[in-house]
Amino acid sequence: MSRVHLVARHASRILLAAGVIALAYAAYVAIDSHIYQAAERRLFEVARHDSRAVAAPVVAVPANGDSIGVIEIPRIGIAVVVVQGDSPEILNRAVGHVADTALPGNTGNVVLAGHRDTFFRALQDMRVGDAITMKTRQGDFDYFVESTFVVGPTDVWVVDARGGHTLTLITCYPFSYIGPAPDRFIVRAREATPVHMQPNRQPSAVGSHRRAAK
Description:
Elements: H1 3-51, E1 67-73, E2 78-84, H2 88-93, E3 95-97, E4 108-113, E5 131-136, E6 139-151, E7 165-173, E8 183-191
Parallel strand pairs: 2-3, 4-7
Antiparallel strand pairs: 1-2, 1-5, 3-4, 5-6, 6-8, 7-8
């Protein structure tokens, strides 16, 4: 056997092994996220039942990795646990709430990030007027989509507060891109009945986040 054939055989074996490892890792991530989502949903439902949610603002800032609630977009089939933070570890298991942006029910811009190839893939089918519900232990907050658009990865203005009660969803774009995608797909929504318009409610404000969305 020639040296070229020997090298080619070894290279093919290495590539095969790398492919098997990649598939195994992808399967592990998928199974881990499924188990995590199921467990967190059960804990969330128990907590909501015990707290008797009354649609009050989420005031206390959760610790990184703590679950905040569940985002539901019925028309496109999204129902995912939302966790404080947007690290790679968090986004492999859940949708992340970007630190230093508003919490549900508060004045400001609630910013959530998710992967385009997992939890937020269905955002490509989002339409203006679609309903979004952010469920928390304090109650449910309803939003309606006002716009969708694409920005570059350094356009951090999308996470800034815009006045009132808004919700911004961020994922990578294009959805079909292989590898790290170059742009960001944005969904902008506004709360249907902000807490500050309800009697006897006093929402608190939080700061704005000024780093690149992941």
